[in-house]
Amino acid sequence: MRTPIIGGNWKMNTDRASAATLAEGVLGAAALHPGPEVVVFPPFPYLLPVHEVLRRPIIGGRTVHLGAQDVYHAEKGAFTGEVSPLMLRDCGCTWALVGHSERRHVIGEGDDNVNMKLRSAIAAGLSVILCIGETLHQRETGDTNHINERQTRLGLREVSPEQLTRIVIAYEPVWAIGTGKTATPNDAQEAHFHIRRVVADMFGQDAAGRIRIQYGGSMNAANAAALLSMPDIDGGLIGGASLKAEDFGAIIAAAAARR
Ligand code: 13P
After folding, report:
1. To test ligand 1's pocket by mutation, which of 6, 11, 169 has the most ligand atoms within 8 angstroms of CB?
2. Is position 258 within any domain?
3. How far apart are CA 229 and CA 259, in angstroms?
4. Distance from the alpha carbon of residue 103 to the mean position of ligand 1, in angstroms
5. Which residues, in sequence order, are bridge partners of residue 215?
6. Is 178 in the pocket of ligand 1 (CB under 6 A)?
7. CA 230/CA 125 separation, integer angstroms
8. Is residue 255 part of a domain?
9. Domain membership flag for residue 194
């Protein structure tokens, strides 16, 4: 049985005070609804203050994990503006996102870059969420499975089976992100099923059965339960609805009820 994983990607939102308050709310929600693994991804400057909140003990010893929205592939050096995996660990992170669609499509990152970041973060001991997903044009031209397969294969290139156990895939169709348009549970399930088949082809059936694949794209308190009821949807990566502890808590509750 795969443990559901719910991630809150705060993107470029919050300020120092509201980030800490939101983290407190998420801790409370995680304590109320045990079961799912919960990770929040604040902006870089707020990692430390959020870490201070998250390290407080909560009921039952449960934790909310801290993750970074991006990471650079080098350990240190002359890379102005970048942040290394070791720096993230030093600030309390145990997770990092790589290949988020906004990094691919707004910043212009390609699959090679995403793969370098993933391998460097994994080598440094972080767990990684590899984000993939098709654009609206790619969906309309029938390329959804092809794009997901390519981004999965290139993203996971030169990853060992042992390293794969610290990787989660987030299927985030670009047209569903921040638009209020959610993939139907059946469409999302179909994409997840195909992605799992690709992982099976690369790493074998056992590994494919173990890897968690999250859905992301306008997931909210109202639609989470239906999406999470699908057999290959193992959690959610949430943007807008992760900025309110109550809404995010409702999604955690839906994931907890699924188990
Ligand atoms: P929204 O939930 O705002 O659509 O964002 C999804 C996302 O990009 C999470 O990484």
Report:
1. 11
2. no
3. 10
4. 13
5. 171, 236
6. yes
7. 31
8. no
9. yes
Q: Are 138 and 144 in contact (CB under 8 A)?
A: yes
Q: For residue 1, how far is its CA from the centre of ligand 1 (angstroms)?
A: 26
Q: Look at the alpha carbons of 96, 52, 29, 57 in this order and tell me if their dihedral is positive or negative.
A: positive
Domain range for 128: 5-13+65-244
**pLDDT bucket at 59, cuts 50 / 70 / 90:** low
As given in the structure block, the two tokens for residue 179 are 């638009």
Question: Could you give the number of structural domains in the chain?
Answer: 1
Asked if residue 155 lies in contact with residue 130, where contact means CB atoms within 8 angstroms, the answer is yes
Residue 203 pLDDT > 80: yes
Atom of ligand 1 nearest to the CA of 219: 2
28-33: average pLDDT: 92
**Distance from C-alpha of 126 to C-alpha of 113, rounded to nearest angstrom:** 17
Q: Model-level pTM?
A: 0.97
Position 259 scores a pLDDT of 55
- Straight-line distance from the first to the last Cα atom of the chain, in angstroms, rounded to the nearest whole number: 9
- CATH for 100: 3.20.20.70
Contact 68, 47 (CB under 8 A): yes
Which among 33, 109, 172, 192 is annotated as catalytic?
Answer: 172
Q: Quick check: is 162 catalytic?
A: no
Q: Which amino acid does the sequence have at 97?
A: L
